[in-house]
Amino acid sequence: MREFKKLTPYEEAFQLMLNDISEIPDVEEVSLDEALGRVLAEDVKSPIDSPPFDRSAVDGYAVRAEDTFQAREYAPVELEVIYEITAGMESKAEVTSGKAVKLMTGNKMPKGANAVIMQEHVKREGNKIYVLRPVAPGQNVAFKGEDIKKGQVILKKGQILRPQDLSLLKSVGIKKVKVKRKPRVGIIVTGDELIEELDEKALTEGKILESNSIMLKGLVRQYFGEPVFYGVVPDDESTIKEKLERAKNECDLVLITGGSAFGDKDYAHRFVKLLFHGTTIKPGRPVGYGERVFVMSGYPVAVFAQFHLFVKYALAKLVGANFEPIKVKAKLTARVSSTLGRYEFVKVWYEDGKAKPIRKSGSGLISSLVESNGYITIPEDSEGYLEGEEVEVVLY
Q1: Which domains does the chain have, with CATH numbers?
Q2: If residue 384 lies in a helix (H) or strand (E), which one and from where to where?
Q3: What mean pLDDT do residues 240-262 have?
Q4: Distance between CA 226 and CA 373 in Å, rounded?
Q5: pTM above 0.70, yes or no
Q6: Distances (CA, A) of 309 to 90, 214, 275, 322
C-alpha cells in the first residue's frame, strides 16, 4: 500500500478546513420546547423590564425605612399592619408613617413603602409589629428592571441554547426564537468486510459488524446537525462515487468512512478535491477534507478522534455557534508518551481533578471509548507528559 508522501500538521489542516467552511444562511423559528441545543440566529432583546415592578425580595413587611432607623432589640419600634397580601396580589393600602403591609417574596411593593423588613426581625402581636432592627431605603427590594431592562440584549446570536437560557426567555414572555437550521450531514460507510446483522458464521470468515454509522449519527446530533444515512456501501468504485455525489448535492457536510488511505480498494478520496489528505494526528492519520467532505478512517476509534479534532468544529461554524468545548485542568495519574512529529489524541478518564490515561490503544478497540470521558492532546513537538504533570482535558 502506498504511503503518504507528506503529512499536514494538525493545526495547519484544521485552519484549512475551518477557512473553507461557511455559515449556512437558513433560519427557522421554533418554540422554546424545541429550542434546547439550537443556535440563535439573531440577538434577542427583552420586551419588558424584569422585574416588571419594584418587588419584595423576602417575606416580611413593607415599611418606610425612616420609621425603623431607631429600632433596636432592646427598644423596638411599633408599627401598625394595615394590609396583608399573598402571592400575586397587590396592596390596596398605601404605607404611611407608622404603618406596614405584610407581604411575600415577589409581591409588588405597596405605594409609599421603600424597604422590606424580614419577618424574622419583628415580633407580631395582633395588628402590631415590633421592629427589632433598622432597614435602609431599598433594603430587601428588587427594583423594576434591576435584572433586565426593556430592550436589553439578553442572548446573543450564536448562543447555544441551554435550559437556563430557555427559562430566561420565558420569564420575559418570549415563546419562540429564530435559530439556525440544523445542517444536514450525510454519512456513508464503506467496506466489503462490513455486515449489519449478527452472523456468527460470517464473523468467523472475517466479516465485521458495522458500528461507525450509529456513533456518527449520535455525534452529529450532539453537535448541532441532522444526520442523513446513505447506508453501508461495498468497496465498489462506481457505487461509492454515486453515493458521494448524491450526498454532496443533498447535504451541507458529508462524512465517509473507510477508503481514506491508499489500498487497492480505497476509493473515497479519489472523488473529492482535497485541501489536505494525511495529517499528523494519531489515531486517524489518513483523514482528508475538501468540498465539504471529510474522508475518514474505517476504525471507530480513529473516526471518533477525527470527529472531535475536526468535524465538530466544522458543524459549529456551519451554524455560527459560539462554541468552545468544556475543558478542565487535571493531573495525570500515569506517564503518556508520544513520538515527535505526531499530534496524539489520548483518551482519558477524568475524575476529581485527575486524568487517567486509557491504555487500550488500538483504533478498533471501541471499549476504550466507553471507558473514557475526555481526551488530551500531545502536540507534534512533544514526546509526552510525565505522571503528575498538569494537562488540559477536553470533555466529551
Answers
A1: 10-25+182-319 (3.40.980.10), 27-50+146-180 (3.90.105.10), 55-142 (2.170.190.11), 327-395 (2.40.340.10)
A2: strand 384-385
A3: 92
A4: 23
A5: yes
A6: 57, 19, 16, 17
